[in-house]
Amino acid sequence: xxxxxxxASAYDSIAxxxxxxxxxxxxxxxxxxxxxxxxxxxxQGKKVAELGCGPGYLTAHLRELGLDVxxxxxxxxxxxxxxxxYPDIRFEVGSMDALExxxxxxxxxxxxxxxxxxxxxxxxxxxxxxxRMLAPGGHVLLGFFESEGGALTPFDHKVTTAYxxxxxxLAVLAREAGFTEIGRMLREPLEGERFRRGHLLLHG
Length: 204
Hints:
There is one protein chain. By secondary structure, this protein is α/β, with parallel strands linked by helices. 36% of the residues lie in helices and 26% in strands. It contains six helices and nine strands. The protein has helices at residues 3-22, 30-43, 57-64, 76-85, 123-133, 167-176, and strands at residues 47-51, 68-73, 91-93, 106-112, 134-145, 153-155, 162-164, 180-187, 197-203. A hairpin with a 6-residue loop joins strand 6 (153-155) and strand 7 (162-164). Helix 1 (3-22) runs parallel beside helix 4.
C-alpha cells in the first residue's frame, strides 16, 4: 500500500476521536499560538493553504486571524468532519505533494505536524513542492516533533509511524529547497506531551 494511502487509512480509522482530542488544543498552547500569529501577520491578504489540515481546527483559527485560507488532507473522513464543523471554509481531499495548484499560486503554507509521517527520504520532494506552489516572498510555517539528541528518530505515534527531526537538519533541507529561515521556536514538552516541539518560519 502506498505510504500516503496508509496514512490516510490510519487517520480515517480514528478521525472522530482525533477531532475531539484536538478541537480545543490550541487554547493551552500560548507559544504555539504566538508562532501561528506571526505567520498570519506575514500572510495577510494572501491565499493560504493548510496542508494536512485534519479536522480543520487550525484552518478555522487561521481564518479567525483574518486569513483567506483553505485546508487539504489525505483523509476523506477528516475532511468530512472539517466541512461539517466549519461549513464556511473550503476543505478538500488531496496529498500535499501532488496538488493541482499553479506555480506560485499560494502566498502562505502551513504544515502543522503534517510532515511527521513522511519518510525522511521524501521530505526534500515535499519541500520542493511547497516551494513550487509558493509565490515569491510567500511564507511557510512548519510544526513538528523535535529530536533533542540531534538525530532523526522514528517513534511510535498513536496513529502510524512518525519521525522526530533535529531542527537544524530540517532547516538545512528547507534552505536547500529554496527557502530562507525567518525564525524558529523550540518549546519543552508540557504535561502529557512526550517530546519537544519545533517550529520553523520560512519565506520563499
